[in-house]
Amino acid sequence: MPAVKNARRRYRIINNMLRNKQAPYPTKDEIRKACEEDLFGGEYGDHISESTIEKDIRAMKEEYDAPIVYNRLQKGYEYTDPAYNFDSIPLSSEEMEALQFAASSLLRYKNIEIFSQFELAISKIFETLTLDTDKEGHSKIWFDRKVNTVEGQQHLKPILDAINDYKSIKIDYYSLSSNKRKQYHLKPILLREYEALWYLIAYNLEKKRIQTFELGRIHELEIAEASPLKLGADFDPETYFAHAFGITVPDELKAEKIKLEVSGIFPLLLKENPLHKSQHLKGKGEKAEIELEVLITPELKAKILSFGNNCKVVRPLELQQWHKEEIKKMGKLYGSVKP
C-alpha cells in the first residue's frame, strides 16, 4: 500500500481513538499498536514506530487543523474540541477514485433481489461522487452487467438465510449429467458467483459429502429444520477451492501437476493473467511452458480447448490422451470439406 494511503489510514485510526469516549486519552504506544494491528494484523510487529505516530500527530495538527494535545495529567492524547472529526474532511483524490470504482462494481448487482436493499445506498454514492464520465455522460468504467439477469437469483436470499440460521433445505434440482430432476436434502454452506452464474456449495445430508449446485437449475426450494450439526461453521473457501479450476470440486479427484506448452500470444496473456494461483511460467517470446497443480475438471479441459492449436498437453498422459482424442473428433467435423 502506498505510503500516502497508509498515512491517511493511520490518521483515521488516531481520530477514532481520540473520539472514543469508552477509552479516552490513548497513549502513543496504544495508538502505535492499534495502527500495527489494523495495517499488518498484529499489534506486536515493528512496522510502525512511535516516531511515525509523532509525525502523524504533527501532520494532522499542521495540515488538517486537528486540535490534538497531550494531557499530562491523564498521560494520553485528546482533542481539545470534542466536535472535531477527521472523517468529516473531504476524501483525497485517491480515495475518491477507489470509491468510484467500488460503486461502479456494485452497480452491476443492483437489480438482483438480495442486493436491492442496497440500491438506495449505491444511488446515494453516485449522487455524491463526481463520477468518471465523458462529456456525453457515458461512464469511463464498465463492468459486465449480465449477472443482473441470471436465473435462480430468487433463491439467493432464502439460501443465505438458511446458512445464517444453520437450517437445512430441500431442493428439486435438474441434473445435466442424468438429464432429470432429483430431490436433495442439503445443509447450505456457501454461495459463490462464477462466470456470471450463482452456485450453492452444500453438504448432502444423504450422501455425506459436499456438492455444488447451480441456482438456475433449482426448480423448487423448501427451508427445512435447523440442523443439530453446525456444518459449514468452519468451512474455509480458500482451502476448499485451493486446487479448483472453475467451480467444480469433485470428491473423487486429487490435484495433479499439469504441464502445458503454449504459443502465439498466449505466453504473454498468461503472464498478465495467470490461469491459476499455482501457475509457473517458463520461457519468453512466443513459446512457453505452463505448470499448474489443479484438479482436472471440465472447466480446465474447456480452457485447454479454447487455446486451439496454440496449446499442447505435456503431462499427465491421461490428459494428453484426452486432448488428442478431442482433436481427432474436431477434425472429423470437417472431414468431408475440401481445402
UniProtKB/TrEMBL annotation:
Domain WYL: from-to ranges: 155-223
Domain of life: Bacteria
PROSITE patterns per record: WYL
UniProt signal peptide: none
PANTHER family assigned to the protein according to its UniProt record, in alphabetical order: PTHR34580, SLL5097 PROTEIN
Protein name (database record): WYL domain-containing protein
Species: Luteibaculum oceani
